[in-house]
Sequence to fold (486 residues):
Amino acid sequence: MVVAARNHDGLISAPQQNQSVGWALASLSLATLLSSLGTSIASVGLPSLMQAFGASFQAVQWVVLAYLLAITTLIVSAGRLADMFGRRLLLLGGIALFTSASVLCGLAPTLWLLIAARAVQGLGAALMMALTLAFVAETVSKERTGSAMGLLGAMSAIGTTLGPSLGGLLIAGLGWRAIFLVNVPLGLLTFALAWRALPAHSKSAQAAQGEFDATGTVLLALTLAAYALAMTLGRGNFGALNIGLLAATAAGIGLFVIAQRSVKNPLVQLASFRDPRLSASLAMSLIVATVMMATLVVAPFYLSRGLGLDAAMVGVVLSTGPLVSTLSALLAGRLTDRLGAHRMMVAGLFSLAIGTFLLSLAMTRLGIASYVVPITVTCFGYALFQTSNNAAVMTGIAAGERGVISGLLNLSRNLGLITGASLMGAIFAVASAGARQGIGQQLLSSEAAARGMQVTFQTATALALVALVLALLSARVAGRVEPTVS
Fold:
């Protein structure tokens, strides 16, 4: 629990404890904001980087991919290291690494040095993402976990929403280097707050025994990197390289499982996956992230080609989803605390399924409302699911496993986003009959865009229903078995 000041009788006063928890949540919220901002703000700078370095799009896209790959491949290992050696030390190290790498990004003289610095920045972000959820479970009472998870969800949505607009303003006024240097003062503030507020000793200190599983770490990192590259290279058009990378992924999974069974202190306790609630939560997180990625990949084409909106209006309408997610996350946290995580998980997925079904109708005759109303329902369901799912998982595990389980939760979400970007984009391209001409070209008609929208979100609805069935089964299991919290 959070270390709070004691009075002359040696007891912790409630106001002091609440203040201590408040400062801790402030530092964790800023860490969440930083990691999500690092993802979204760089994308808007790709055209400027192409011009500044005289590089192709295929080259500058690695500024984004290097960051995402570093997070995806290292986030579980980051959580395990924190469980072994202390979360406070690792979180402070992650913030410092992220901030220092931001300086290197802003000063990079060549594109490849910028890409290398972004990979280091991604390592810092992996540490922050893996440990914020774990620290919430440690610093906040079980009765307030949902509200705290809602706050982190809101900060993540704010970072995602703020990135493109803030990045555009910074590039216009100060140049592309400013989109990386803006992280420096935010990082210093986050570090100072975390240093002041987070407990020096955690319940997981007893877990710092045994050796770190270096073999498992390398195998998992290579396997995840192969999968991420298979899903991103070729931009949805699978070729021999993509198939080879997927084969390498399958082989890597087999080797990783063998390695985990043969070491005394494995990176991931495979026995944890025998808990149907944890396995269902991770599967649901992956599925929901895949579904939500369709709104980012497909919606711009529907709005621009299907509804005929100009670029400015597309941007305004697209901001509806992140705005709803931000506002809904805080409410979702309170509902989770009051009504229970599993109930809200089911309710969130039901809302998600309804929203994606409405999006699949793609009724262009209704104009902007044909997108805004369904996306509001979808994003409210997403915020409710994300908050309740995180709360259910993090309050139901042992203290010594919170870091690695937090890493697995974030990993499932990242893998879902990567899968969704490829899968949903490919479905839209095929359904709109735009695979040959390229879905970004003007040849895509309004009817073709609407058809692509319908098929893509029919698929998304089917996936949402699968997640809903998993949630119902998980809720039934949770009703029979009391979670163990230590």
